[in-house]
Design the sequence.
């Protein structure tokens, strides 16, 4: 990796930390940027600066947008009363791409993990319980990954929500074992949503 | 790709234009940035802004650095008298990684191509001819890709340099046919350099 000038080398090292880019492809990406400085590099730099300055976690659902309350939580057209619980913002995006869900979300930001000492508070589960009452929620759809951690978390949430009397459902078994939402095609997600089962 | 907020969507579209990143991996990369805003996104944004503002083509050799004259052209330690001609800055970096060359460079910025109407002027070949006299060059090493266009360009340059009496050599046939320098391991490049043949 050596022999590019220091500042460019530092940029390559930063790019290499992105998922999907290793040291070699990061170098090629930076070279591409250097060749297209005004057409590609400057717009990308400005977009990054702008998004880094404005992006924030929605204080209601945990989605990322450039507002304190994200467009989904702020949209009058979205149904109130139904919450879809997802592990990550990427899963929220995948649900939205798939279409078929018109309610609101709750982004956990991960799954329960004794190993990494991630407990219910870190996942905003108490906040979820509070939303059930505050927003008069009648159904919670657990759209968690079909992994061991995802299903453990789903069961924990179902139990935590039991006292509220809210109806809790989960995506149908259309989601393949070990599958992660973000890698599924839209049709599979839609079908699993339509056939969701009550827990 | 829809459903991320507009500004984030625009960032994903810009990232997707980088070599090695498609729309899907660009989205994952941007999500990674959004999750690590202060640790990864802000440093990357600042590095891009900084490099975009300072990067320029060396007025002597065509290398890219943050100076009008690049560190290689400015280094007293680098041998004068021997020029290595490469197609692209990525090839210059590959030569430097391989080691074994202590002279200076001339970056063409491409190869001759009737199809794309890239002629000798666009490749700074007249400037190369001028450097032979100005810098008292005794040998020119053509380190061009072993592609049809690369070899056509090598022959054109050898003929253009003939009147100057400078010795012209090319990397040895250690470079596989169709091979591009940037994809070769360092040992192959070093061996080809050591066994370069006079044209
Ligand atoms: Zn929200
Ligand atoms: Zn230079």
Sequence:
């Amino acid at each position: 990796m050596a022999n590019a000038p220091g500042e460019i080398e530092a940029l390559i090292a930063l790019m290499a930390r992105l998922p999907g880019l290793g040291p070699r492809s990061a170098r090629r990406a930076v070279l591409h940027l250097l060749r297209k400085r005004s057409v590609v590099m400057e717009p990308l730099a400005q977009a990054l600066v702008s998004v880094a300055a404005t992006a924030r976690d929605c204080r209601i659902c945990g989605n990322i947008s450039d507002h304190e309350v994200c467009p989904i939580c702020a949209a009058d057209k979205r149904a109130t009363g139904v919450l879809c619980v997802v592990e990550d913002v990427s899963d929220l995006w995948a649900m939205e791409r798939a279409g078929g869900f018109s309610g609101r979300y709750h982004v956990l930001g991960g799954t329960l993990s004794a190993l990494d000492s991630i407990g219910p508070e870190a996942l905003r589960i108490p906040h979820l319980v509070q939303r059930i009452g505050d927003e008069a929620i009648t159904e919670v759809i657990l759209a968690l990954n079909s992994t061991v951690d995802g299903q453990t978390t789903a069961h924990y949430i179902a139990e935590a929500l039991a006292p509220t009397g809210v109806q809790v459902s989960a995506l149908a078994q259309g989601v393949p074992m070990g599958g992660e939402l973000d890698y599924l095609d839209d049709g599979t997600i839609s079908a699993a949503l339509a056939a969701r089962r009550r827990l």
